[in-house]
Specification:
Length: 123
């Protein structure tokens, strides 16, 4: 099973941008759906965006038009480009993957998870 490591989090002002990376080690992301999830302080974890192995994508309504998910299978990495960030985007961002239904961008049933990276949007 691949290990997932997130990077790219940090402190950014409202309206700013960040790009998160999710790198797989000890395995690859071939024929796997990968997604980004967020847990804001005091709230439950929610799905943000997922991408199938065939590059089908899915976005939460709260991030549509601002966030873009992509993958580079040669690098075993999935990215989340986040633009026009808002204070409500603050939270720990987790990367997760699953080997079943790799042809869909459904964010349910993830099998393996990274440890997360913190994003703070504040002036």
């Amino acid at each position: 099973q691949a290990q997932l490591v997130e990077s790219g989090g940090g402190l950014v002002q409202p309206g700013g941008s960040l790009r998160l990376s999710c790198a797989a080690s000890g395995g690859n992301l071939d024929y796997k759906t990968v997604g980004w999830f967020r847990q804001a302080p005091g709230k439950e974890r929610e799905s943000i965006s997922c991408i199938g192995y065939n590059n089908r994508t899915n976005y939460a309504d709260s991030v549509k038009g601002r966030f873009t998910i992509s993958r580079d299978n040669a690098k075993n990495t999935v990215y989340l480009q986040m633009n026009n960030l808002k204070p409500d985007d603050t939270g720990v961002y987790y990367c997760a993957g699953r080997g079943s239904m790799w042809y869909t961008a459904n964010c349910n049933g993830m099998d393996f998870w990274g440890k997360g990276t913190l994003v703070t949007v504040s002036s």
